[in-house]
Amino acid sequence: MRFVLLIATFFYFSSAFSGGYSQSDLHEVQSHLEHLKHNHKMPDQSNNHTPKKPQNNLTAAIHPGEHIHKKGGWMFTYRTMDMHMEDNLDGSKGISSNEIVTTVPNRFYGVAGQPSTFRVVPTKMDSRMDMFSLMYAQTDKISWMLMLHHIEKSMKLTTYMGGSGTTQRGTFKTKSSGMGDTSARVLWKAFQHKYHKINLNFGVSLPTGDIDQKDIILTPMGMQPKSVLPYGMQLGSGTYDLLPGFTYLGNNGYSLGWGFKYQAVMHIGENDEDYSLGDTHKFSAWGGYSFAPWIKTSIGLSYKHESDIDGIDSRIVLPVQTADPDNYGGDTLMANWGLTLTGQNGPLAGHKIKFEYSKQLDQNQNGIQMEMDDMISVSYQRTF
Hints:
Largest sheet: 12 strands, antiparallel, barrel
Radius of gyration: 23 Å
Number of domains: 1
CATH topology: Lipocalin
Oligomer: single chain
Shape: elongated
CATH class: Mainly Beta
Distance between the termini: 30 Å
């Protein structure tokens, strides 16, 4: 909290002594995994310094397609995002670890050494994603963006003894880390009229993320082999993916703004291990308010639908829910809150920092899955 107040004070005095300001597109919604922002002048700002109520387009600026630069402009963005998951759901209802290991069938039952029910249960998962993007405006209407990802994942699990019962053998933790998939996009300003505009974006995701991550596990019989980790602990999709989307942005010409966004991830074919992650479709809506040129807030909702995994990796045969491709995908509703601080004239011009918090409101998952809790993200952007 002290850190946020310190930065806010810094931006305030920077704005106060600057003698003027540039208005910015300042809204963003949760997403995992694409981040863009941009500053621009108010279209009706006069050369004198007569005070005006600030106009604010309040565009959702960290997702691809939400803003197009002026010709020749560049933008660098760094964003870090932390996600926490805890406990488990059966569809939309909570289910205990003891229930899972005594009632939920193991799809691999019949394979040598595999019990009839799950005997390993994940209890907590934390993941961190660092995103680096660079954007260039070829024209006033067309921009290009390249994004790199670095991912770290950690999961805590409980192993139960033998083939039945609720006696715990112990707990263990698995980890994976490395580069994720790389995305490239083209952004097009398709429509703009007064306080309304529509941007379209299309991209491809390249399979640079590893799908062969391994770690040591604890089996019900007490052995500790090094095994290929389940799908959710891998770093990429292993496939080439299509990334279509569009954004509508509106504002009242003053301090209020709103918008709607659709973004999809569509996987092409199967990867080298004979499976394909489920396609995702995400819808976001938001509203925002500008208290001053240097500080903006936003609030919104996002809904994501994800299909289950198609196919199966023959190397992943474990008595745990995350090894079953049917236990992936579903529907998730999130609430998002954001605070954006934007440097004005002087040395801080072109710099922007945003804080965002997202909380799960409702989930209805396919099969048995961990419950999404919340996400926190911090981003820095520099335009030049």
